Amino acid sequence: MALYKNNTELFQVRRGILGFVYKFLDQIKNCFRSCGRGGKFSLFTNRGLLFCAFVLAVLCLISLAAFGLGMHFHGKLEPSMLPWREMRKDIIAHDVPDRPTKKPRRQRFFPCEVAFKDSVDLLSEPKDFLNFTHFSLGYMETEKKASHIDAHEPRFGGHQTLEEREQSFFAVNQTVHCGFVRGAEGFPSTGFDLEEEDRKYTSACRVVVSSCIFGSSDFLRRPTSRLMSEYSKKNVCFVMFVDEETLSTLSKEGNAPDDGGFVGLWKLVVVKNLPYTDMRKTGKVPKFLSHRLFPSSRYSIWLDSKLRLATDPMLIIDHFLWQTGSEYAISNHYTRHCVWDEVLQNKRLNKYNHTAIDEQFSFYQSDGLTKFDPSDPNTPLPSYVPEGSFIVRAHTPMSNLFSCLWFNEVDRFTSRDQLSFAFTFLKLKRMNPDKPFHLNMFKDCERRSLVKLFHHREPYVPPPPKIS
């Protein structure tokens, strides 16, 4: 072990970094001694200054290496001895707020090719196409005055008892509740009133494309006129049901109807005295009950107001009804196929009151609703959850009955019609084993090829009042 004498004391000098540091410190002292002498600087002094500068630079580099870059220490360190890099991380973790995590990208869905015929000129309705299950279906027009309803206010859907509900699922000659139920004599209308001129127009339609906007909830999406055949423009009724508030909003946005009530291909029909305060439930009236609003129609197509029709309606009827021998066509949901999943999703997104959803779902389970099993080859439908924004139907007795039954479930329970679709279909099928209902549940990607999808209008939020 080498010895180094300093200030008359002997120190053990370790060979390595510490010995090197001690040696440099002594050199610095010698530098200052030489610089402190009077007179002119000698050549030795100039060299000493350069050497001192070099020594200071080396000390700075050693300091950075030891503390700035985090030296490796053996043994357990006290918190106060943590390298600066780790201390800096700890400071940042406590003083800087976490950056918001990016939302996962929403899964995208794309259209798929649909083999439409090249022209409507090549279309012809199959012979005896409407020769499906036949029975006479009547509709409850006025509420019967009885003791059990005396205390009830008149309702658009009527006051259907559970016994009447059960009997309505039989495909037999009968009169069923199907909306538009008026109160007993002396009571006013229960809602969805049309002007007489509009009523005459809708009563004459044979093929219909319909939609609705209530409560200014959406923009007006005009069908793509250049994609519509001249035949459809002349023979198909394009009817958009609106309330007075929506009509006013559309007019301010440059969509005021002409003297005939038209905006492009849409015939705007104003509905007065809306039957429900829930605009979503009011929208189910034209969605399900087109056979009642258009009593002479043979076919109808429903599309939600967020969709713009981009395919000729006669090509749609031919492809989804005539070529498949179906009387009702609706697409499956793009992600969910079991009602159990749909219930959870509605509650997760707070689409409706959770208690009301639970009551409806419990009622359906007690009445025979089972989970969707995709592995079962005898499953009657490819999905128990529809994407209900697009519906194609022939106005046959079975199709009309199914529409009434589905509407009655929405009227009785929640407006979330995807919750009641599977139950309604399965119960109708179960109670009429010898009377088939020809339903075509097609792929959602096909629906996307028929229309252009938009988002609904964002609800208007008034600005906060200015503080003077």
From TrEMBL:
PANTHER family: ALKALINE CERAMIDASE-RELATED, TRANSMEMBRANE PROTEIN. Pfam families: TOD1_MUCI70. This is TOD1/MUCI70 glycosyltransferase-like domain-containing protein. The chain crosses the membrane at residues 49-73. Keywords: Membrane, Transmembrane, Transmembrane helix. InterPro entries: TOD1_MUCI70, TOD1_MUCI70_glycTrfase_dom. It comes from the Eukaryota. Residues 137-456 form the TOD1/MUCI70 glycosyltransferase-like domain.
